[in-house]
Amino acid sequence: MASAGLRPYSQFNFLVDLGAAGGPHGGFQELRRINKPNKSNDITMKRGRISSATLADWLNQTRKAPRRAQRTVKVTQHDEQHRTVRTWTLSGAVIIKPAGPTLNAKGTDVAIDELVVHCERIEVHPPAGT
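^ thats the sequence. predicted structure below, dont judge the formating
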């Protein structure tokens, strides 16, 4: 059980750092990028689990001051052996659609069916040493 505390999202292939201290803040099974004609990007993350406090803080910030809610989000893809395959840095990211089941006060994480993040720029990084 000790390893679960060290790697709380190890069952997911995509680990997400929401631009706050203490990441990764979540993990997802699927990631999809949507290019729009005006060159802005939406990233859709599906079927995951995420820190409820970190997500709630970002959503509250988005509601109060959308311009200041922009964050630099990092998404790291891992293979079955938990090795980094690729990392995406999403600059100027804001949440545009969180979708999930009803919140449960019993845990510190919430299940997320879908989280859509809009970003100004995407940088793709290969794993270190390649």
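The CA atoms of residues 2 and 9 lie 13 Å apart.
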